[in-house]
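Hello again,

I reread your note about wanting to compare the complex against the isolated chains. To keep things tidy I'm splitting this into two emails, and this first one only covers the full assembly. Below are the input lines as submitted, including protein chains and any nucleic acid or small-molecule components. They are followed by the predicted structure of everything together. The single-chain runs will come separately.
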Amino acid sequence: MKKALRRAYIALIMAFLYAPIVLLILYSFNDSKSRAVWGGFTLRWYQELFSDTAILSALGTTLTVGLLSAVISTVLGTAGAIALFQLRRRPRHALLSVINLPMLNSEVVTGVSLMLLFAMAHVQLGYVTLLLAHVGFGVPYVVLSVLPKLRQLDPHLAEAAQDLGATPLQGFLRVILPDIMPGVFSGFLMALTMSIDDFVISFFTTGSGVSNLSITIYTMAKRGISPKINALSTLIFLCVFALLIGLNLRDFKRGGRKKPDEVRIPY
Amino acid sequence: MKNKALTVPFVLWAAIFVVVPLLMILWYGVTVEETIPYTEIVLDDGSVIYELEDGSHTSEKPYEKRARVSLSNFKRMLEPTYLKLLLRSLKIAVITTLICLLLGYPVALILTGRDFKRPALWLMLLILPMWMNFLLRTYSWLSILENSGILNGLIASLREAIPALDEWLLARGVRRRIVFLYNENAVILGMVYNYLSFMIMPIYTVIEKTDRSLLEAAADLGANPVQRFLRVTLPYSLPGVLEGVTMVFVPAVTTFVISQLMGGGKVPLIGDIIQNQFGKSSDWHFGSTLSLLVMVVVLAFMGALNRIDKEEAAQKEVRIL
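Full-complex prediction:
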């Protein structure tokens, strides 16, 4: 009985979390522009989606800004983590608190502060500022996920590599990098996720007609969201779902109890 | 691996993207914009020159604006209008955080228990919704809750099916169409919906890492399940609770999107006002002052949480001894 209650509770929470999503997916097949009417099953929103240049270009912006900013953040953040790691205690702590600031700050403050920065530098708001802002908030995630891996590293490994004749670069590429790769990868995924999902910071740092999906949806929300957006989101959702299931399938089959940091979930 | 050259680009990044922007907010926050004051002097020959404050003269009309250090925006911030907004934001954020904690803690507890064979799968299902754009998910609530929405439709058909219930509700003054949206409760619902997973994740992580032998030891020493929960699980999960509280409270106190969608503009929060200052109202200086206020509130909140964490950590050591 108690067990049934506990299961029912989880089911209820899941229903709460998924109800709006199920609805959204249903509306993507609804043959009516209005949310209030069910006009029958259709795939036309999916067809029209691929000829809607506004939505496609927003999708393009989201994806390219996401990938580019994640790659740049990963390079900068990994270098940063290594640099931090080499510093003495005091400067390291000082720098660490500086990079923690944007994570503590609310998104509004970060967005506004970057907007002021670009205004001061007389940079026209647009694609470049959007990308720079995303690099700006992506770097801390990478640093914070690479640092723990560096701490676990055997400090003699790099020396051993150099003793065996490797240049510092070879030592890094062949010895250090493979060991910290899981941290680098999860940092990359986090930066990518944050960038794709971001609305607030993008809102303040983009301009001159450049908008990503979030901003497009925000603008649409005032006069009604097109079912085409629902169709696109359904596609994205299914892709991510398939990807996650694929990544974790073996673990689920084993049914083993896993620590959450071993579960491959980019969140 | 010793390579100081790596430090330079990183410090540059930290300076340009973290320190300078925050200093900009500080500067804008303590200044106001004004046009340079001048007096117009008409000379004998009919031409006009302008005398500036410092007594110098110019033949061109001064039009440039300049920033002047002034605390007038702080005074404006303390006006009842803005204080009320801040209080409402805090109230809604606190309620949201409490609801998330009450709903989320049991989820973390149940998932770490033995009822579910595959906690990893369930955890993934909790996070998956975050991959759907949050604006869209929140927007989807509108079609459930609006006056002609799904929930009202369900209630209406229920009342038609059971006339007795209908009469009973009418007698209590419950209207046929219930207004769910565009009030504080709707905003709170939207926030709980968006932030619930932020609360569950850290609590789950901490409970999962807690040494299970502690629970067994407590049971051996005669503690009943309630005592085991109160004396072992709860204190050991506190760091996770505190992290979850932070992850919910900070975005809740500053959001402007959820309040606009679920509140329909009728429940403005402090975040809405800041957004407005950088958009329509275009008073960057006042917007910065409000941003400073938000930063102080968030930092004070985190400071308080840190203290709880430290005190509790000290007590835990005593408990083990």
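For quick reference: The mean pLDDT of chain B is 87.

B.
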